[in-house]
Amino acid sequence: MNQRQAVLGILRDAANPVSTAECAAKFSQAVGLGNEAEIVDQVSRKLPS
Known about the structure:
Distance between the termini: 21 Å
Shape: globular
Helix content: 55-70%
Low-confidence stretches: none
Strand content: under 5%
Structural class: mainly alpha
Mean pLDDT: 79
């Protein structure tokens, strides 16, 4: 699964709109990075808002 597919899957599965931070947390878990605050912060900076 590439990064774009992961993000689109998260957005498709969301019941409600999600913030960039929520999306970043779910993305980092989906690709196996964990959900430590530092990692989520770095990922959220790379996602378009």
